[in-house]
Write a structure and sequence with these properties.
The chain is an alpha+beta fold and about 170 residues long. The protein has helices at about 20-25, 30-80, and strands at about 85, 95-100, 105-110, 120, 125-130, 135, 140-145, 150-155, 160-165. It is elongated, with a radius of gyration of 32 Å.
Amino acid sequence: MSPRIRRPARNAGAPTGARAALARGFTLVELMTVVSIVSVLLGVCAPSFSEFLATQQAKGLTYDLMSDLILARNEALKRNASVSLARGGAGWQYGWTMSAVASGERLSQRNAVSQTVTVSGAPATITFDVNGRVSAPTTAVGFTVSAGSSSRCVQLDPSGRARSLLGACTP
């Protein structure tokens, strides 16, 4: 008997069976199914994402306001001179400027924020005296920062201490 010699098949390099199905790619039906599922998920997530953005904008403005109130108080103590924080334009959401009262030197300035954030219940100017206390106005100050359904309160007591709370300020 002579040994049998195996000859390679004609399509030896071509994928067969399950490999052949994977090598062809996606079908149109599979692609449309994935696109429709993704569009439904985006439709569900988009409204909550816009609320998330509004909340983050309010939180950011609250932190900026808190840091500048603390900075103004510290500058008044450091310079041994009065320092004021004044709103820009018609409201605090349009920015504010920190300046030394006696010299008029501008120490810091914040630009306007997005239109979705509003600030209410605050005076036009806050002045810290040489001891770091609030000299004008003479009562406690409350800023209500709101965007969408979220609101935060920044309170400044007459001693010059600022603090941030969740929710709107109460008189």
